[in-house]
Specification:
Blueprint lengths: L2 E7 L7 H10 L7 E6 L4 H9 L5 E5 L5 H14 L4 E5 L7 H7 L5 E3 L4 H12 L10 E5 L2 E4 L18 H7 L3 E4 L2 E2 L17 E2 L2 H13 L4 E4 L8 H14 L4 E6 L6 H10 L5 E8 L3 H6 L6 H14 L3 E8 L6 H12 L5 E6 L7 H4 L7 E2 L7 E3 L5 H19 L4 H10 L4 H14 L9 H15 L4 H14 L16 H13 L6 H5 L4 H7 E8 L1 H7 L4 E9 L7 E5 L1 H10 L1
Parallel strand pairs: 1-2, 1-3, 3-4, 4-5, 8-11, 11-12, 12-13, 13-14, 14-15
Antiparallel strand pairs: 5-6, 6-7, 9-10, 16-17, 18-19, 19-20
Bound molecules: cobalamin (B12) and iron/sulfur cluster.
The site of iron/sulfur cluster has 10 residues, from loops.
């Protein structure tokens, strides 16, 4: 009985931990079990023909919110061309509301709900030996008299599971992917919108096993390991020991964790701040909302003050990148309350702020309570809300525009100096900047066309021109600086049209070479000759003293020469020269 386990990952770079656990556990009994992964971006016909040609008797699909719609199409096509093929589905997306899935997809033969390793083993053995399925716990199937749902499978003893990362060939292929890793299963919290709240209790893998597994991945050159533990820091000593181990053994691998920031203990925080090597850890912190009433309604206990303190300390240490999450559309959070949530969290200036929209996931409490808050949401995945009793669809659309420009302008870190300046000087709040700009973006139809780096600058510039205001000039100058900072090589073109002409640049170069005492000392120390300056240096004349602004936040009108040196490898070096020189340059010009 040839069995293939498969899934459609969200992107090519992702990988499936579930399939690796399932294969590893079943390999001894089913040595020819195959694992094959695709991504939802691949044309369906490619996936269909590849799977078809594997000549399987049984195919197991791992189903999640990001792949279920494509997976259903695939299953239906496969059954058309191979009617005798047995289809098993499993995964969080199909583990709840079982009758719905059997009604919706008549091609499903067996559904494994909940944890899958043991259940799949029992199911495959029963199928192979043609045994009655009543004894296989954790499955649902079409019986003679309709849908049969067997009792749940008891939870596995984690230390009896087999390592998902033993196959050398597989490890070689995983080097350039995001590799997922579990040190525990389950979450101690019970947020009503989250699937992890459905099951209670947290189980841990043996710490020594965790270390061996991690070292194996590190030694095999895996670049990014993402821990899928729901709340990595639930168990203080366990988490600390893993942090310590990774600090000592990371070899340049990057590790991502989902952390609950308000429960992180001061000594763990201190340890990380003192010892974490910069850039090796990345923390994802779900804030979701700062509205206490909302949080109480979704059963989320959160001390935002403590969370903020932790975030600020970690940020200050400059060692751990922080990614914060928000959810728009939670109960009793209207547009203004969400604006406040956004601003509260943006004030912490996380490297990345992800603005998501509530999804009503089958199996969660909020899905059961949907009518209580008049939720209107998509019938199919991703089940995103369209409106509720407090948030109109129009407001949802507006917040989507905030998300769009937030991604492009803040999370991509293309214009940090400019955005910071605008928020502080020209807009009532960060949210208002992203909202107004997002509305303008949409009005201009830019969401329907792609954009290169220059376009990001041109569009912000167009928005500021139309909006007007006394700070536009300063914003423009910071945008020029940000544009230069985005390059590793001297840019061939700039997006503004008042840049220095070739002849003016040549005159500046002559002057700098003739009177090095007039040039910034650090620039002179580079010892560049005329040809090198032409090749590697950009000049721009500004009306404001940006050096002063960047150092002290003070805005002073002062002609400044901006000098940017590109060495092709590092970030560009920036130098400023004040008025004296410029006067001479102006005279020359
Ligand atoms: C990795 C991950 C992702 C990755 C995707 C990785 C990939 N392969 O492509 C990324 C980051 C892209 C992602 C995104 C999202 N995710 Co996500 N993600 C996860 C995460 C953290 C880990 C999944 C995992 O590997 N778990 C470990 C394995 C071992 O457990 P498992 O998946 O449950 O598998 C077991 C069983 O389900 C079963 N099983 C699974 N497959 C199969 C197949 C067969 C044949 C059988 C028999 C059994 C079986 O057996 C397995 C072993 O016991 C989970 C949370 C978690 N910790 O599980 C959320 C989770 C899966 N994501 C979730 C959600 C909601 C999202 C987002 C919508 C969040 C958002 N931004 O709004 C997005 C959607 C993205 C999109 N494009 O639409 C929800 C799931 C909802 C659902 N119904 O599928 C989860 C459960 C989080 C939660 N607690 O609510 N996610
Ligand atoms: S949102 Fe996070 S803390 Fe809340 S139940 Fe889900 S995994 Fe646990």
């Amino acid at each position: 009985m040839k069995t293939v386990l498969t899934t459609l990952n969200a992107k090519y770079i992702h990988s499936s931990l579930a399939l690796r656990y399932l294969k590893a556990y079943n390999l001894a009994d089913f040595p020819d079990i195959e694992l094959v992964e695709y991504s939802i971006k691949e044309p369906l016909m490619h996936v269909l023909s590849d799977l078809y040609q594997r000549n399987a008797d049984v195919i197991g699909f791992s189903c999640y919110i990001w792949n279920i719609e494509e997976t259903i199409q695939l299953i239906q096509l496969l059954k058309k061309v191979k009617p005798r093929l047995k289809i098993i589905v499993g995964g969080p997306e199909v583990s709840y509301d079982l009758p719905y899935w059997f009604r919706r997809v008549k091609e499903i033969d067996y559904l494994v709900y909940g944890e899958g390793e043991i259940t799949l083993n029992q199911l495959l053995k029963a199928l192979k030996d043609n045994r009655d399925l009543v004894e296989v716990a954790g499955i649902a199937y079409r019986g003679d008299s309709g849908l049969e749902i067997n009792s749940p499978q008891p939870k596995a003893e984690l230390n009896e599971l087999s390592s998902p990362y033993q196959d050398q060939e597989d490890l070689a292929n995983l080097k350039d992917k995001i590799v997922y890793f579990e040190a525990s299963r389950g979450c101690p919290f019970a947020c009503s919108y989250c699937l992890s709240s459905v099951e209670t209790g947290v189980r841990y893998f043996a710490i020594e096993w965790v270390k061996v597994e991690l070292l194996n991945l590190i030694n095999n050159g895996v670049k990014i390991i993402k821990f899928v533990d729901r709340t990595f820091n639930t168990h203080k000593r366990f988490a600390l020991e893993i942090f310590q181990f990774l600090i000592e053994n990371h070899q340049g691998t990057i590790f991502q964790f989902e952390i609950t920031a308000d429960i992180i203990q001061p000594d763990v925080l201190r340890y990380l701040i003192d010892n974490a090597p910069p850039g090796v850890f990345r923390f994802e912190i779900g804030v979701q909302s700062t509205n206490e009433y909302t949080n109480s309604l979704v059963n989320r206990r959160q001390n935002f003050k403590r969370l903020s303190e932790t975030v600020l300390m970690l940020k200050e240490s400059k060692k751990i990148a922080l990614h914060l999450d928000l959810i728009a559309g939670l109960p009793e959070e209207d547009y203004n309350s969400f604006r406040k949530t956004f601003n509260d969290v943006f004030a912490l200036r996380p490297e990345e702020l992800q603005l998501g929209f509530l999804k009503l996931l089958r199996g969660t409490k909020i899905w059961e309570e949907a009518s209580k808050y008049d939720y209107v949401y998509m019938d199919n995945a991703p089940y995103e809300i369209l409106q509720n009793n407090l948030l109109s669809f129009n407001e949802v659309i507006r917040i989507k525009r905030v998300e769009d420009v937030l991604e492009k302008y803040w999370n991509a870190h293309r214009l940090d100096n400019s955005v910071e300046y605008l928020i502080k000087h020209d807009f009532a709040s960060a949210f208002d900047f992203f909202q107004e700009f997002g509305d303008f973006w949409e009005e201009n139809g830019w969401n329907r066309i792609g954009h290169q780096l220059e376009a990001l600058f041109e569009r912000l510039s167009a928005f500021l021109e139309v909006r007007g205001g006394e700070n536009v000039q300063m914003a423009h100058e910071l945008m020029k600086l940000d544009y230069f900072l985005n390059h590793r090589h001297k840019p061939r073109k700039v997006w503004w049209d008042d840049s220095l002409k070739k002849q003016e640049q040549a005159q500046i170069i002559q002057r700098l070479l003739a009177e090095p005492d007039q040039a910034p000392e650090e620039f002179v120390k580079l010892g560049l000759n005329e040809k090198e300056i032409h090749k590697h240096v950009m000049f721009e004349v500004l009306d404001n003293d940006l050096a002063e602004y960047l150092a002290n936040g003070k805005i002073s009108k002062q002609k400044t020469l901006l000098i940017v040196y590109y060495d092709f490898v590092n970030r560009p070096q920036i130098f400023f020269n004040l008025i004296g020189d410029i006067k001479k340059i102006k005279k020359i010009g």
